[in-house]
Specification:
Blueprint lengths: L23 E8 L8 E4 L2 E4 L1 H10 L2 H4 L3 E8 L3 E8 L3 H8 L7 H10 L12 H20 L12 E5 L2 H13 L19
Helix pairs in contact: 1-5, 4-5
Length: about 200
């Protein structure tokens, strides 16, 4: 379905009252601006990345360099979105000195800076999921716009979707879903050309 600002409004979709700096695993989905299929193409069940998709794939692996208490699990780039599992550990103090001089990636402010190419303020005392995602969006947007010579161009849809992974069974299901996602592209709700049949 094409992005509709009347439907996809900007209210928070985070779980109210939940501390997203808590150690744990999170399943996340980030969509491209207007859900345009510009990250690659699914051919015979395999994702063939564009240059833009390659940048997004490569920078995902760099997240722990900026957030030392973060580990990465299963991840996939799709034509117009990415799915991934992020694990926040409780060893924040070990990486605190490394993080102090880096820009913050807070969900609300950095989403605006993502498109404008502005500076992000210093990190908060604890890393939140919103910081991680906004930092990822900001950095990939900056690199892509530098390569494409399109300053200020929006690459990502505002905000992101998340699910808190509460046990091993849910983690296994999430891993399998991400791994098999390219095979299910014809039925993917993010696919503007998806087949009409249900799952």
């Amino acid at each position: 379905m094409k992005y509709n600002p009347k439907i996809h409004h900007r209210q928070s979709i985070r779980l109210r009252g939940y501390d997203y700096s808590e150690p744990g695993a999170y399943f996340i989905t980030i969509c491209t601006q207007n859900r345009e299929c510009n990250l690659g193409e699914i051919i015979n069940g395999e994702m063939k990345l564009t240059v833009r998709g390659f940048i997004i794939d490569e920078f995902w692996l760099k997240i722990p360099e900026h957030f030392p208490n973060v580990e990465l699990d299963e991840f996939v780039v799709m034509p117009n979105h990415v799915h991934g599992i992020i694990v926040i550990n409780d060893n924040f103090n070990e990486g605190r000195k490394h993080q102090q001089n880096h820009e913050e990636a807070r969900e609300t402010e950095a989403d605006r800076d993502t498109e404008a190419g502005g500076e992000t303020p210093p990190l908060r005392k604890k890393t939140t999921l919103g910081q991680i995602i906004a930092y990822y969006k900001y950095q990939t947007t900056k690199i892509i716009n530098q390569i494409d010579d399109t300053p200020g161009m929006r690459i990502w849809q505002r905000n992101y979707y998340d699910r808190i992974i509460r046990n091993q069974k849910i983690l296994d299901i999430a891993r399998q879903y991400i791994f098999q996602n390219p095979l299910r592209w014809n039925k993917d709700p993010n696919n503007p050309y998806k087949l009409s049949q249900s799952y």
